[in-house]
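Review form for a predicted model. The reviewer records the input and the model, then writes brief findings.
Reviewer: anonymous (R2)
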Amino acid sequence: MAAKDTAVKAPAFAMFKTYRKQLIIATGAVLLNAVGFYVILSYMPTYLSEELHFGAAESFLATTIALLSYIGFIFLTGIASDRFGRKRMLITASVLFVVLTVPAFMLLDTGNFLVIVLVQILLGAMLTLNDGTLPSFLAELFPTRVRYSGFAVSFNLSNALFGGTAPFMATLLIGLTHNQLAPGWYLVAASVISLIAVLFAVETSKKPLQQD
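Model under review:
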C-alpha cells in the first residue's frame, strides 16, 4: 500500500521540483485566457449596462452574438496553431490585446449596437488565437508522467486566482480610478504577463510528446 501511495504522489512532487519553469510558463500563458474570457464574455454585459448605461437587453444580446462567433473562431484557430505553431499564435494573441484592447473599449462607449457587437466579435476572435492554441500548448509543455497534473494545476490556478476574480477586479479598478477603461488596462496587463511567459517557452508544435 505504501509503495502504491508513493507512486501516486511521485508525479506531482516531480512537477513542482523538476518542472517548476514549465509550470510558471504555463500559468502565465493561461492568464490571458483566464482574464480575457471572464472580462469579454462574462463581465461585458454588466460593464455595458452598468458603466456605459447601454440597454441591458441589448448588452446581453451583443455578448451572446460575440460568444457564438467565439465558438466558431476557436475551431479555426486550433487548426491554425497546428500549421503556424503554438508559440507564434500565443504571441500574436498577446500582442493584439496589448495594442487593441484599450481602443476597443473606447469604441464600446459609442452607444451604437452594431459597433458594440463588432468590437466584441473582434475581441472574441483575438481571444480564440490564445484559447484555440492553449490546450495543445499546455499538454505538450509537460512530459507524460506530469502532463495531467501540469495542465490541471496551471490552468485551474490561473483561472481561480485571476479569471474568477476578473469581474470583481474590473469593478474595483473602475471605482478606484474613476476610469471606465480600467478593465481594458487590466486585460492589457494580463496580456503582457502572458506574452513574457510564452517568450520563455520553446515551440512544441510538430515535435514528439515528451515521454520521460
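Findings: The radius of gyration is 19 Å.
Further findings: Confidence is low (pLDDT under 50) at residues 1-8.
Recommendation: see findings above.
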